[in-house]
Amino acid sequence: MTSVEDLYLGVIKDGITRHPRSLQKRIGPSEMGRPCDRWILHKLNGDGEPDRGPAWKPAVGTAVHDQLERWFDAANRGGGEVDRTEWVTEWSVTVGQIGGQDIDGHSDLFHVPTGTVIDHKIVGPKQLSKYRLHGPSQQYRVQAHLYGKGFTDDGGWGPCRAVAIAFLPRDGELSGAYFWSEPYNPHLAAEALQRANRLWTMLTVVGIDAALAASPLCDDQWCTWCKTEKRAQHRAAGGSLFDIGELQVVPEPQPRQLALPAPIPIRPAEPAAPTRCTVCGEPMAPIVTMGGFTTHPSCDPETPAPRPVPATPQPAALAPVTNLFDR
């Protein structure tokens, strides 16, 4: 029997997988700036992205985008008149062509008075700190400038003069948001289109297998294709998930021990051979040999016998002292 929890989560998973963003197989402006050529080749070939389960975080970002669209639409007080519109939300633009086919995308926001393309990014605390310190990734920059090219080529809302990315905290307060911007650069958009067309030409000439063989696997942790192919290659070669960084065991820090020199072995001193008497051949006492003697005193007739030491004279006995108080 299916529980209420299974039914509840099933509705959410089904909604994520059926969303147009999840079903999109054609490459768009948000992917043309990816550093991995293999990713671009897979998208140009129409390959579906490897299954990674329900993409909950992107779904949260999509929901926030929908709410932001309502707020900025309500902020337009021009009564629907085009010449009085300040914010243009979710506008479809054509950013260029790949292989003769138009590449379309939906820009999150365009501020008409300043000609600024604005893209919303809903990120976690680590990513927010990284973008605040180092700025957006090249992929995000290319996406914003491609939208700027689309608005400039269209001309209906005026040319693009600047691009901006609003990094909004997914797990924090609005006060932690980071707003990045730079002048619009048409050359950045042109380079991305030129690269995509070069990869498309290689794909159509040699096919997907040869094109992938000519493109090395990348180290991007967000590239699901390269991660999946690395995992498959290591498993086919009999490798372990530990070899490709899928599982990491962090050892506990051990105190550093200094290497001590090996002790020098001390050999016990061999006892010296006793000095023997030159007359009788018997061993002599060490105390005798230390005096420079080579024979026992009893064996050497020339050695004078020890003379007796005279006794010290003792004093005569004293007469007893008479105590006068005894009388």
Verbal overview:
- This protein has 327 residues and is of the alpha+beta class.
- It has a domain at 57-77 and 84-214: Lambda Exonuclease, Chain A.
- It is built from 10 helices and 5 strands.
- It has helices spanning 4-17, 20-23, 37-44, 56-75, 125-134, 138-154, 186-206, 208-213, 224-236, 286-290; strands spanning 87-98, 101-111, 116-123, 162-169, 178-183.
- The longest helix has 21 residues, at 186-206.
- The mean pLDDT is 81.
Which residues form runs of ≥5 with pLDDT under 50? none
- Rg to the nearest angstrom? 48 Å
- The count of helical stretches stands at 10
Number of strands: 5
Average pLDDT, all residues: 81
Structural class: alpha+beta
Tertiary shape: elongated
- The quaternary organization reads as single chain
**Strand proportion:** 5-15%
User: How are strands sequenced across the largest beta sheet?
Assistant: 1-2-3-4-5
List keywords for this structure.
elongated, 327 residues, alpha+beta, Lambda Exonuclease, Chain A, 5-stranded mixed β-sheet
Task: Give a short synopsis of this structure.
This protein is 36% helix and 14% strand.
How is the secondary structure organized here?
Layout: H1 4-17, H2 20-23, H3 37-44, H4 56-75, E1 87-98, E2 101-111, E3 116-123, H5 125-134, H6 138-154, E4 162-169, E5 178-183, H7 186-206, H8 208-213, H9 224-236, H10 286-290
Parallel strand pairs: 3-4
Antiparallel strand pairs: 1-2, 2-3, 4-5
Helix pairs in contact: 3-7, 6-7
